[in-house]
């Protein structure tokens, strides 16, 4: 496989990447930011989806930790959503150029993961507290995210300013599922609301979104 140097990093053109197989459940969940990033960058992959049934409990034995998402790239298997998206981002030059940018993208993404965990707590365990979550938890968290987003280009472009990074796909997906939970959840955060609307117009994302036929969560709540 031939690679070229882009911004000091090895960049693997999508057409030359090994065959990719992404395994997850038939929902958006932890795999959707990975799917969005691959689709937006023109990377072909096999989107293998499981239902949570007896077949899945037998199939899970093949994966490290017995969990998905998992990525198979040739003979290499990569578990854990964070490891997968960062691995692919390095190949696609979507991690940032400077060390400061890379660190920012990393901790920005980890913060979004914390928000997603709080979202899942409501969706899967405490759905009766949805209104309280929307009134207290989400506003506090989105205020922090909006403040961070303004660090580069005042939040008017991407997480790292002029350059798309893997953090953008995590942010877009988290905002998207938030808007499904409540269509007004971002009204108090104009920078985030504008970001979501702007990023949604990307051609690669629109094609993927139009084609997907699976829900946000396993339990039908959103």
TrEMBL record:
Major enzyme class: transferase
GO biological process, one term: glutathione metabolic process
InterPro entries membership: Glutathione-S-Trfase_C-like, Glutathione-S-Trfase_C_sf, Glutathione_S-Trfase, Glutathione_S-Trfase_N, GST_C, GST_pi, GST_superfamily, Thioredoxin-like_sf
Single GO term (MF): glutathione transferase activity
Species of the source: Pristionchus entomophagus
Keywords annotated in UniProt: Transferase
E.C. number(s) listed in UniProt: 2.5.1.18
Catalyzed chemical reaction(s): RX + glutathione = an S-substituted glutathione + a halide anion + H(+)
Pfam assignment, any one: GST_C_3
Alphabetical list of SUPFAM superfamilies matching this protein: GST C-terminal domain-like (SSF47616), Thioredoxin-like (SSF52833)
Every GST N-terminal domain range: 18-96
Function, in words: Conjugation of reduced glutathione to a wide number of exogenous and endogenous hydrophobic electrophiles.
Domain of life: Eukaryota
GST C-terminal domain sequence ranges: 98-222
Family the entry assigns: Belongs to the GST superfamily. Pi family.
UniProt name for this protein: Glutathione S-transferase
Signal peptide: none
GO cellular component: cytosol
